[in-house]
């Protein structure tokens, strides 16, 4: 699938340290999840290279922070335009290594690029403060400064956007970055890095350490334990987030964590059912159910339960499963064999405990799974507690608003939540009562660069995107001027 790139030089397989492509001593294989075939052999770097990258970033910092915000913004904007100019190739690379349908991949390129534009703009608005004095002999000022070298460890489900969402605010604020992309999707990361080079990113300001699963753990330890690295941003599982937070404790590193979710999707009797079904489709089945904001648990009120199940099953059953490069395919493969095993385990557990299979429930080939709807799901089933991360919609039944809120909040996660209602009072009550960082009301699609993305409870720390997205990369400094 990669033979057809318009610009074959976007296919990079070496890592990027200090503006140079580094082959490393060994390689690891990146495979196409749709076919299982190898795509490329990528540089497999370890702890030593991680130290080099950190030192390169450290050396690049003074010149990068000394640039004016406008100068840094100009480079980010050039990078933004290059992502758009090469959107077709970037999408092909992404579909090849990640599996999502080509149209979805192209959508992600635009979404990923939007963070570069947004933070290029925001970089010019990192305002300080003057505080009215309480002593006529003194003046109080607050200035904002870049935090320092930043590290980012990113997942495979959004191979480009999860990089730009972290890296754009860091760079905009004046911080150099070291990125460790997911081992399943390094080619998208490297292509984006190549475009950063073309945009004029100075050497050492943006470094990419590619590594296989085992080396990722070692590289992670170096990034966390370094006292040069002042901030770590991670998107991935809660389990790995906890490990990284512990590893960062000795150096009291600032952390941004975007971890697992277990999003409830509530449909009240007064909802517009067709709209709710539409929202459920995008929220649940996008990226084959592999997003951290995917609806994971559907709670549907008695009066509309049967209608909702029937309508959702009809639409889910009409999705086309296949290789993301084939026209009309809406559901690509899952990322790896274990992902399919988890989906199968959740479905088997639900069926064993009395759920009904309404549609789907079938593994196709190695990594494909048919979009599935389960009804009569109950709280004792695995899918009620754990994130399935696959194309399965388990539908629970409820009677009262209080019951729905209690069930929705009965999880250690708190990333996204969704609900459908046309009652304005209920919209406020439920919107305020849900324990999550983001709530979609009468919509299943909430992400955009302008809004704060992030979770509460064990779904994470900090917010990405929006004007809040810059905060984690900035230190607030108070200057007290005396002898006035
Ligand atoms: P996912 O559930 O998305 O696969 P993971 O949390 O397993 O998420 O991985 C997300 C990222 O974290 C990847 O880049 C992966 O290489 C990295 N990673 C996984 N385990 C560790 C670890 N122990 N230390 C550092 N990085 C890790």
UniProtKB/TrEMBL annotation:
Quote one Gene Ontology molecular function term. succinate-semialdehyde dehydrogenase (NAD+) activity
- Which Pfam families has this protein been placed in? Aldedh
Active-site residues, as the UniProt record annotates them? 258
The answer to whether UniProt assigns keyword Oxidoreductase to this entry is: yes
GO terms, biological process:
gamma-aminobutyric acid catabolic process
- Keyword vocabulary terms for this entry: Oxidoreductase
Q: Which domain of life is it from?
A: Bacteria
What start and end residues bound the annotated signal peptide? none
* GO cellular component terms given for this protein: cytosol
Domain Aldehyde dehydrogenase stretches: 21-478
The answer to whether the entry has keyword Glycoprotein is: no
> Which NCBIfam families does the record associate with it?
SSADH (TIGR01780)
**Sequence similarity:** Belongs to the aldehyde dehydrogenase family.
Q: What is the protein name for this chain?
A: NAD-dependent succinate-semialdehyde dehydrogenase
């Amino acid at each position: 699938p990669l033979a057809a790139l318009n610009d074959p030089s976007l296919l990079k397989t070496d890592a990027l340290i200090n503006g140079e492509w580094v082959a490393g001593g060994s390689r690891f294989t990146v495979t196409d999840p749709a076919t299982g075939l190898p795509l490329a052999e990528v540089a497999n770097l370890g702890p030593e290279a991680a130290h080099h990258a950190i030192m390169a970033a450290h050396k690049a910092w003074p010149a990068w922070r000394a640039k004016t915000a406008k100068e840094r913004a100009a480079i980010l904007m050039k990078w933004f335009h290059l992502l758009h100019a090469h959107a077709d190739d970037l999408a092909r690379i992404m579909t090849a290594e990640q599996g999502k349908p080509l149209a979805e991949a192209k959508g992600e390129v635009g979404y990923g690029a939007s963070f570069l534009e947004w933070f290029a703009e925001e970089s010019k608005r990192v305002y300080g403060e003057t505080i009215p004095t309480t002593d006529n002999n003194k003046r109080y000022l607050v200035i904002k400064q870049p935090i320092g070298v930043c590290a980012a460890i990113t997942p495979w489900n959004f191979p480009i956007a999860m990089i730009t969402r972290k890296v754009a605010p860091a760079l905009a604020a004046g911080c150099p970055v070291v990125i460790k992309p997911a081992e399943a999707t390094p080619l998208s990361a490297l292509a984006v890095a190549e475009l950063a080079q073309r945009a004029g990113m100075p050497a050492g300001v943006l470094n990419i350490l590619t590594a296989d699963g085992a080396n990722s753990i070692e590289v992670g330890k170096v990034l966390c334990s370094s006292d040069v690295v002042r901030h770590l941003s991670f998107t991935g599982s809660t389990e790995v987030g906890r490990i990284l937070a512990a590893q960062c404790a000795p150096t009291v590193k600032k952390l941004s964590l975007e971890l697992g979710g277990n999003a409830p999707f509530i449909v009240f009797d007064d909802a517009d059912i067709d709209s709710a079904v539409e929202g459920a489709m995008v929220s649940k089945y996008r990226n084959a159910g592999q997003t951290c904001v995917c609806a994971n648990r559907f709670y549907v009120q008695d009066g509309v339960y049967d209608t909702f199940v029937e309508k959702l099953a009809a639409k889910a059953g009409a999705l086309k499963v296949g290789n993301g490069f084939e026209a009309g395919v809406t559901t690509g493969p899952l990322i790896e064999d274990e992902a399919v095993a988890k989906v199968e385990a959740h479905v088997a557990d639900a069926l064993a405990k009395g759920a009904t299979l309404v549609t789907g429930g079938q593994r196709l080939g190695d990594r494909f799974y048919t979009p599935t709807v389960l009804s009569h799901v109950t709280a004792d089933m695995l899918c009620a507690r754990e994130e399935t991360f696959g194309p399965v919609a388990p539908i629970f039944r409820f009677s009262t608003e209080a019951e729905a809120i209690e069930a929705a909040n009965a999880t250690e996660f708190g990333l996204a939540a969704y609900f459908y209602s046309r009652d304005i009072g209920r919209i406020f009550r439920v919107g305020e009562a849900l324990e999550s960082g983001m709530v979609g009301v009468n919509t299943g699609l909430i992400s955009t660069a302008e809004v704060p993305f992030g979770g509460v409870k064990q779904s994470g720390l900090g917010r990405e995107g929006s004007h809040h997205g810059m905060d984690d990369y900035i230190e607030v400094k108070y200057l007290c001027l005396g002898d006035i």
